[in-house]
Amino acid sequence: MLSFRSIPKKGSIIVASLLFFSDQISKFLVLKNIGSEDVINIAPCLNFVLTFNKGVTFGLLKANSNLHLMLLLAGICIMSLVVGIWWIRAENSIQRYATAMILSGAFGNLIDRLRFHGVVDFIDFHILGYHWYTFNIADSAIVLGVGLLLLDNFLKKDN
User: Fold this and answer.
1) I want to staple 119 with a disulfide (CB 3.0 to 4.6 A). Which of 42, 112, 123, 153 is the partner?
2) 139 part of the active site
3) Given the residues 23, 112, 124, 139, the one annotated as active site
């Protein structure tokens, strides 16, 4: 029997699954249809370009060797375990959905690292000639999840 208390857990699994599969399908389509030199204009401030991020956020800590890659993968696994425990112990729906989003993004990018030794990024947002770092759906899920955790923390302080 479905109880109201179980909805956040099941709902967060559904949201995480949708984000994960959207990320993987979009990366598959980009790899299949966009070459490394292609720039596809989507909107005045949005392009699709194929890049491979060998590091972590914003290209930091590049994995230039197998040892670096193994250390990076180990770190991602440890952080995913910590966030997974947080998901299990979530105090409310915001924490549950936020940690599920972070995990979906982490797993999406982890698969890329295992397959390609780097993360497939393709969303190129730009304004007035200034380009933000190229990212993907998994990155967006992680950022949104962290943002929700920050929001949850600020909401707690007000109560």
Assistant:
1) 112
2) yes
3) 139
